[in-house]
Specification:
With 1034 residues, the chain is an alpha/beta fold. It has five domains: 3-100, Phosphorylase Kinase, domain 1; 107-154 and 174-282, Transferase(Phosphotransferase), domain 1 (Orthogonal Bundle); 483-574 and 753-789, Periplasmic binding protein-like II (D-Maltodextrin-Binding Protein, domain 2), CATH 3.40.190.10; 579-749 and 792-828, 3-Layer(aba) Sandwich (D-Maltodextrin-Binding Protein, domain 2); 840-1031, von Willebrand factor, type A domain (Rossmann fold). Helix content is 34%, strand content 14%. The protein is built from 34 helices and 27 strands. It has a six-stranded antiparallel sheet, covered by helices on one side. Strands 15, 16, 17, 18, 19 and 20 form a six-stranded mixed sheet that branches. The chain has a six-stranded mixed sheet with strand order 24-23-22-25-26-27, with helices on both faces. β8 and β9 (158-160) form a beta hairpin. α14 runs parallel beside α16 (554-564), α20 crosses α28 (824-837) and α32 (968-975) packs parallel to α33 (997-1010). It starts with 8 loop residues before the first strand and ends with a helix. The relative contact order is 0.07. It comes from Cryptosporangium aurantiacum. Residues 283-296, 380-390, 415-426 have a biased composition (Low complexity). Residues 283-445 are annotated as: Disordered. Residues 308-379, 391-410, 427-442 have a biased composition (Pro residues).
Length: 1034
C-alpha cells in the first residue's frame, strides 16, 4: 500500500487526504481515486439542515454538473453516501461528491493575497461568465456566485463550482417560496424581496464579484444584516468609473449594468463573457487568424438552415461588368450546401471580368441542389479596398441594439431603483436555449465598402448572405486579422458619453490595414493629462498610453506645448461638443444675484463673497456667501474661471506680463481669489458633496460655484458624476446655470492625436487613420445628437430643445458672451501668478503610525507607512511658499494617554523640515483615531487664518482602537463649528481595506460635518494619486 492509499477510505475506491476547505455544511478533502489512479477532491456533507434539504442538494449538484459538462465548470465524477464499511468519521448515510481536484485555490484566496489587475480579472472571470452562460442556456440558475465558489487550476484558469443550490427549470420543490438562498452580500435585490432567482440574479451576483475583484471591496459593505439588506435594495453604490478612472470604460459600464436594480436591464452572461474577452484581448498582442485547410466555413445560422418559401423572382438586373481586385487565400471548405429549388427566369448578363483569382484549391464536399436561375445579374462596377469585420456576435438577451441616433445608456457613479428619465434598455427575456448567432444591425457608415467577389456563383451566395444576415458573408470568412486598439483619453465630464458611443462604434468597427479598430476609453483629468504628456506619458506612472487625447478645453493642448517647448500656436483641433463656464447656484441665491432678469458678473461674485455685510443687505441672510471653484492647475472649470477673471479685470490692457504688475488688476484678481471659499479637484466633487448634504439634511457648504453648463444639467437630472445619466431622483434643490454677463470661456472638447502635441512613436500611421475614422463617427449627426441629449451644445452653440424644455428655465437657450482664450504663454504666466494670488492654505497633515502600518503592500517592497510618507512628501509640491503646513503622527499613548505627537508645527511651509520628519516615522501601537481628530481640529482652529483655507488631512488604515477615547457622536458634535468659531474642514483618507464599514462611515461623517471630503485609497499603491486629489482642494 502506498502512502497516498493509507488514509481513511470511502469504499474500496477513494482514499482521503488532508482538508482543503470547510464551509457551513460541508468539508472538501484531497483524495486519491485508486481505480483510475488520479487525484480528486471529495466534498462530504457535515451538517444537514431540514430547511435546505442538503443531501438532496448534493444529488442535484451532481445531476446538474453532469448535464452541463463545461470546460469552466468543476467536473463531478461520482456521488454516493457513507456506509458502514467506510473508515471516515462521518455518520452513515452522509452524502458525498467526487470532483476534479484543482490546485490553485479559490478566486477569493487570490484576491486576498494581491489585488489582481483588470487584465487578470477579465482573463480569469471570462471563463466563469462562459460557464454561467452555458448554465443559463439549459435553464439552470447557479444562485450562489461569489469568489469562494470560483476555483483555480494550477495554471490560474478559473472554474465555477458549487451548483448545490442551483435552480433548474425542472420542478424540484427544494426551495419554498420566499426562501433566500446564496450568500447575502452577493444576493440580488429581487431575491431579497422574495422573488425567484432567475439568470439576471446570477448576473447581479457576478457584478458584485467583478466590482470586488477590480476595486478590492464590495459595493455594499454594511456590517449589520438589516443595513446590508437596505443598502442592496436601495441600489446605491459608488461606481468604479469614479474611484478607478483609468479602468476601461467597457468594464466599469458593464459592472454598472450588472448592478442595475431592474433585472431586465442587466446584460446576459453571454454578453459579460464578450466584454471580458475583449478587455483581456487588449492586454495581449494581436494575433492573426488565418483559415486553414479543412477548417469549417462560418455560415450565419439563417443560412445553415433549409431555405423554404416561394420562388425568388424579379425584373432583370442589368449594368456594366463587375470588377474588383484579386481574391486570394487558403482553401475554403465546409459542409454540403443544400436547400429547396431556387427558381426564376434565366440568369444572364454581360461578362464578369476582373483580375485573376489566385490561391490554393477550393476543397470541400460537393455542392448539390437544383439549378440556380433568375434574371440577369449586372450593375455598375463595384470596387474598393478589401475590408473585413468580426464574425457576427451572439444576440444580447434583454437588450435591443442601439440604432444610430437612439439614446445610448451611459454609466453612472450610482445606481438606484428609481430611474426617472432613464433610457429603456429592456427587451425580450433571456432565451431558454443556446443563443443563436444573429449579426448586429449595421449602422450606415460612409467609410464602409463591401467586397464583391468575381465568381458568379459566389456572388449570388454573398448577395443572399448580405440580405439575410445584414452583413457580408465574406466578412465572416475573411474577417480582420486581429484588432487595432485605439486608446482615447477623455476628460471626466464627457467620458461616459464618449465611452457609450465607443461601445456603439465597436459593435461595427472600422477596418484599418486588415485589422478591426477597437476603441478603449480611459478617463483622465485634463490637468493630469498635461503633466503626463509633458513627461512623455510613462505608462508605469500614468497607466495605458493614449493614442488620442480629448481634454475639456483647447487651452490644455496649448499648455502641453509650453511644457515641451513647442514654438507657435497649438494644432487647431476639431471640437466634439461645447459647454460654457457658468455660475451655478440654487434658485433663491440666483434670484438674489439678479436672475432671471440679469446674470451676475465676476465683480458681483467678488463683492458678495468678500463682504458679508453686502451679501446680508442683498439677501437678508446672515449666512456668508461661499463661492467654490476647482483648482486651475488640474481642472478646466477652475482654469477657465481664472482666465475669465483676468479677462474681466478693470484696467486690463491685454499684455499679461504688464497687466499682472498693475495694482488694479492684481487687486481684482486677489479679491476674487480671496472670495473663493475653497478649491476642489473636480466639479464633480463639489456636486457629490452637495447631493450628500441634501440627503442628510446638512447645511450646504457652498452658495455658488463655477462649473460647466452641461454639468449643471447632469446634476439637475439626478446624476452628479456622469453626464447624461439619470440613476438617482432629481435633487430637491436644483441649480440655475447663469452666464457671467461680463464674459466667460467655453469648453470646446477638442480631439487630437497625441503625436500632434508630443513625440509619441507609439501612435502609428494605422492608429492615426483609426483615430480619423472614430472622429468621423463622433462628428456624425447621430452621435452629435447623443452629445446634445446629454446637455452639451453643438458646434452652432445650440442646446437640444428637449434639454431646454426639461430644464424649466434653469438653462439659458441664449449663447453666452465669451472671451477669446489667451495664448498659451499668457495662460502659463497667469497660472504662475495664481499661486501667489490664490487663497492661502492652513493645513495640518495627520498620519497614522499604528502597528498595522508596518505591513508590506502586495506587489511592492514597501510597507504601508513607507508608501504613505513617500506620497505625503510628493504632495508638498501642491503648497505654495505662503501656505502653512504642519505634520502630526498618531497611534496610541505616544505621550502618556495622548495618542498624537506634533512633528512640525503649523507654520509657513518648511519643506526640508517636513521631509525630514516624514522619514523619521516608525509604526507602533494601536489606532487612537477619535481623540486625535478632535485635537487636530482644535489645533487648526486655534491658529486659523481668517483669509485662508483651514483644514485637517487625516490618513488612517484602521478603526479607532483606543477604548478610552470619546465616542463617534461626541467627536462629530465637537468637529462642527460653534457660533463664532472658524470652520476647519476635515479630509479623511481610508488607507487600505482594513477599515470596517462602520469605521469608513465615521470618516465620511467627519467630512460631512465639517464641509470636507472623504477619500478612499483601497489599493495602498494609489495613495500618491489620492493625496494629490486631496491637496487640490487647497
Amino acid at each position: 500500500m502506498t502512502s497516498e492509499d493509507a488514509g481513511p477510505r470511502l469504499g474500496d475506491r477513494y482514499v482521503l487526504g488532508g482538508v482543503l476547505g470547510r464551509g457551513a455544511t460541508g468539508a472538501v478533502y484531497a483524495a486519491h481515486d485508486v481505480h483510475l489512479d488520479r487525484p480528486v477532491a471529495i466534498k462530504i456533507l457535515v451538517e444537514a439542515g431540514d430547511t435546505l434539504t442538503t443531501p438532496e442538494r448534493f444529488q442535484r449538484e451532481a445531476r446538474i454538473t453532469a448535464r452541463l459538462n463545461h470546460a469552466n465548470i468543476v467536473a463531478v465524477h461520482d456521488v454516493g453516501r457513507i456506509n458502514e464499511r467506510d473508515t471516515v468519521d462521518v455518520a452513515v448515510g452522509t452524502p458525498f461528491l467526487v470532483m476534479e481536484l484543482l490546485t490553485g485555490g479559490s478566486w477569493k484566496d487570490e484576491m486576498s493575497r494581491v489585488r489582481p489587475s483588470p487584465e487578470r480579472v477579465a482573463g480569469a472571470l471570462v471563463g466563469v461568465a462562459r460557464a454561467l452562460a452555458a448554465a443559463h442556456s439549459v435553464g439552470v440558475t447557479h444562485r450562489d456566485i461569489k469568489p469562494a465558489n470560483v476555483l483555480l487550476t494550477g495554471d490560474g484558469d478559473a472554474k465555477l463550482a458549487d451548483f448545490g443550490i442551483a435552480k433548474s427549470t425542472e420542478a424540484t420543490g427544494l426551495t419554498r417560496p420566499g426562501d433566500i438562498v446564496g450568500t447575502l452580500a452577493y444576493t440580488a435585490p429581487e431575491c431579497l424581496e422574495g422573488h425567484a432567482a432567475e439568470p439576471p440574479a446570477d448576473v447581479w451576483s457576478f457584478g458584485v464579484m467583478l466590482y470586488e475583484s477590480l476595486s478590492g471591496r464590495r459595493p455594499f459593505e454594511q456590517e449589520t444584516l438589516g443595513a446590508l439588506i437596505t443598502a442592496i435594495q436601495s441600489g446605491r453604490y459608488r461606481s468604479l468609473a469614479y474611484d478607478l478612472p483609468g479602468l476601461p470604460h467597457s468594464l466599469s459600464a458593464t459592472v454598472d449594468r450588472c448592478l442595475d436594480p431592474d433585472p431586465p436591464h442587466r446584460p446576459s452572461a453571454a454578453e459579460l463573457a464578450r466584454v471580458l474577452s475583449d478587455t483581456a484581448a487588449l492586454s495581449a498582442p494581436p494575433t492573426t487568424v488565418t483559415p486553414t485547410s479543412g477548417s469549417p466555413l462560418f455560415i450565419p445560422s439563417q443560412l445553415s438552415r433549409p431555405v423554404s418559401g416561394p420562388p425568388i423572382s424579379g425584373p432583370p438586373i442589368s449594368g456594366p461588368p463587375i470588377s474588383g481586385p484579386p481574391i486570394s487565400g487558403p482553401p475554403i471548405s465546409g459542409p454540403p450546401i443544400s436547400g429547396p429549388p431556387i427558381s426564376g427566369p434565366p440568369v444572364s448578363g454581360p461578362p464578369i471580368s476582373g483580375p485573376p483569382i489566385s490561391g490554393p484549391p477550393v476543397s470541400g464536399p460537393p455542392i448539390s441542389g437544383p439549378p440556380i436561375s433568375g434574371p440577369p445579374v449586372s450593375g455598375p462596377p463595384i470596387s474598393g479596398a478589401r475590408t473585413g469585420g468580426r464574425p457576427p456576435a451572439p444576440p444580447t438577451p434583454g437588450r435591443v441594439p442601439s440604432a444610430p441616433g437612439s439614446p445610448v445608456p451611459i454609466p453612472s457613479v450610482y445606481a438606484s431603483g428609481s430611474r426617472p428619465g432613464a433610457t429603456s434598455r429592456s427587451g425580450p427575456p433571456p432565451p431558454t436555449g443556446p443563443p443563436v448567432p444573429v449579426p448586429p444591425p449595421d449602422a450606415p457608415r460612409k467609410r464602409r465598402r463591401w467586397v464583391v467577389p468575381v465568381a458568379a456563383g459566389v456572388v449570388f451566395v454573398l448577395m443572399v448572405g448580405t440580405v439575410v444576415a445584414g452583413r457580408s458573408l465574406l466578412d465572416s470568412v475573411v474577417g480582420c486579422s486581429g484588432e487595432l486598439p485605439l486608446v482615447v483619453a477623455a476628460s471626466p465630464e464627457k467620458a461616459g458619453v464618449v465611452g457609450a458611443l465607443a461601445d456603439r462604434y465597436n459593435a461595427d468597427p472600422a477596418e484599418v490595414d486588415g485589422k478591426c479598430v477597437h476603441v478603449q476609453i480611459v478617463t483622465v483629468k485634463s490637468g493630469e493629462a498635461v503633466e503626463a504628456l509633458a513627461k512623455g506619458w510613462p505608462s508605469a506612472d500614468y497607466g495605458v498610453r493614449p493614442d488620442v487625447w480629448s481634454p475639456a478645453s483647447s487651452v490644455w493642448v496649448g499648455l502641453v506645448g509650453q511644457h515641451v517647448g513647442a514654438i507657435g500656436a497649438p494644432p487647431k483641433a476639431p471640437s466634439l461638443a461645447r459647454s460654457p463656464l457658468v455660475i451655478a447656484a440654487p434658485e433663491a441665491t440666483a434670484k438674489t444675484l439678479g436672475w432671471p432678469t440679469k446674470s451676475p458678473s465676476w465683480q458681483d461674485i467678488a463683492r458678495y463673497a468678500g463682504n458679508d455685510a453686502a451679501w446680508k443687505a442683498a439677501s437678508g441672510s446672515s449666512t456668508p456667501f461661499l463661492f467654490a471653484r476647482t483648482n486651475p492647475l488640474v481642472s478646466t472649470s477652475g482654469l477657465h474661471a481664472t482666465l475669465a477673471a483676468y479677462l474681466a479685470a478693470p484696467g486690463r490692457t491685454g499684455d499679461v506680463e504688464s497687466d499682472l504688475k498693475r495694482t488694479s488688476v492684481r487687486l481684482f484678481l486677489r479679491t476674487l481669489e480671496r472670495s473663493t471659499d475653497r478649491y476642489g479637484d473636480t466639479t464633480l466633487t463639489f456636486l457629490d458633496t452637495l447631493r450628500q448634504q441634501e440627503e442628510q439634511s446638512e447645511p450646504s457648504s457652498v452658495s455658488a460655484l463655477a462649473v460647466e453648463e452641461q454639468t449643471v444639467w447632469a446634476y439637475n437630472q439626478g446624476e452628479p458624476m456622469s453626464a447624461g445619466s439619470s440613476h438617482l431622483p432629481a435633487p430637491k434643490q436644483k441649480l440655475v446655470a447663469m452666464h457671467p454677463r461680463d464674459g466667460t470661456l467655453v469648453s470646446d472638447h477638442p480631439y487630437v492625436t497625441v503625436d500632434s502635441v508630443i513625440d509619441a512613436p507609439w501612435v502609428t500611421t494605422a492608429k492615426r487613420t483609426a483615430a480619423d475614422r472614430f472622429l468621423d463617427f463622433l462628428l456624425d449627426d447621430d452621435q452629435q445628437a447623443t452629445f446634445r441629449a446629454a446637455g452639451f451644445r453643438d458646434s452652432d452653440d445650440q442646446l437640444d430643445p428637449d434639454v431646454v424644455a426639461k430644464s424649466r428655465g434653469l438653462l439659458s437657450e441664449k449663447s453666452a458672451t465669451t472671451f477669446a482664450s489667451p495664448q498659451p504663454a499668457a495662460v502659463a504666466a497667469l497660472l504662475t501668478a495664481w499661486r501667489d494670488l490664490n487663497r492661502q492654505a492652513n493645513v495640518l497633515v495627520v498620519l497614522d503610525t499604528s502597528g498595522s502600518m508596518k505591513e508590506k503592500v502586495a506587489g511592492t517592497n514597501s510597507t504601508r507607512l513607507q508608501l504613505a510618507t513617500q506620497a505625503a512628501a510628493a504632495s508638498l509640491s501642491y503648497f505654495g511658499s505662503n501656505d502653512a503646513v504642519g505634520l502630526w503622527e498618531f497611534s496610541t499613548h505616544l505621550a502618556g494617554t495622548v495618542d498624537h505627537r506634533q512633528l512640525v508645527p503649523l507654520s509657513m511651509k518648511d519643506e526640508e523640515a517636513l521631509t525630514r520628519a516624514l522619514k523619521s516615522l516608525r509604526p507602533a501601537n494601536a489606532t487612537g483615531l477619535y481623540d486625535t481628530a478632535r485635537a487636530a481640529v482644535d489645533a487648526v482652529r486655534s491658529q486659523s487664518d481668517a483669509d485662508g483655507i483651514n483644514a485637517v488631512v487625516l490618513l488612517t488604515d484602521g478603526d479607532n482602537q483606543d477604548p478610552g477615547s470619546i465616542s463617534p457622536a461626541t467627536l462629530l458634535a465637537e468637529l462642527r463649528p460653534k457660533s463664532g468659531q472658524p470652520a476647519v474642514r476635515v479630509y479623511p483618507i481610508a488607507f487600505g481595506n482594513d477599515l470596517s464599514a462602520t469605521g469608513k462611515n465615521v470618516l465620511n461623517q467627519m467630512a460631512m460635518a465639517t464641509g470636507g471630503r472623504y477619500y478612499q485609497s483601497n489599493d495602498p499603491r494609489n495613495i500618491e494619486s489620492v493625496l494629490g486629489d486631496v491637496m487640490s482642494n487647497f
